[in-house]
Amino acid sequence: MNGHWVFDGHIAGVGTISGLRAVIGLWRQSPFGAFADVMVQEASGHRLLLAPTPLTAEFISSTYSFDEAKVVDVRAHLGQESLTVRAGPLGIDAATGRRALLGTALKALPRSLAVSTRWLRAISPLAALAVPGARTFGSAGSGRTEFYGVSDLHHIESASVSWHGQDAGAMAPIRPPVTFGFSSVPPRPGIARVRTTIVGSTDGR
Q1: pTM listed for this prediction
Q2: Phi-psi bin for 88: left (phi > 0), alpha (psi -120 to 50), beta?
Q3: What total of structural domains would you count in the chain?
Q4: pLDDT tens digits, residue range 67-86?
Q5: What is the distance, to the nearest Å, from the Cα of residue 10 to the centroid of all Cα atoms in its chain?
């Protein structure tokens, strides 16, 4: 059976000097309703999914690659100038800032074009050149294909990150790139307005 899933909201990326990197999805609209999830990669390379329900954990872990998936209470709030996240062992208190230069360019595009799967397939090689590690189109798990339509981007200016109750260190670039899927977030911590479209088989064939 073929599937078509659309997730509309924001994706934030934060790195720390300890090597902990986190990618937060804040979805206003999705096939599972409004929810947030977090993908964490430790300095060792260990990849962990923190999802709010068994259903979201199952879908996300069948689309991306993780070493471990946990169902935990995930609470995330994006304000005008702030982002707060509480997800199991992870805590983030971040200050968001000015629109990135790339965000200004993206805002100039009609949103209908910015999220068009045909457009995203065509520009993916250019996106990889403009933002190292980032792609707009590629293969996902379970035989699925994924499209990232970004229509705005703001910098994260500062962040306090805790992991298992310990300070994870000062904010730093997201390096090396995360390896949950075919694309990473930009190296500079930021938050993007995103529509993610996933197409493919519901049963992984």
Answers
A1: 0.90
A2: left
A3: 1
A4: 999 999 999 999 989 999 99
A5: 8
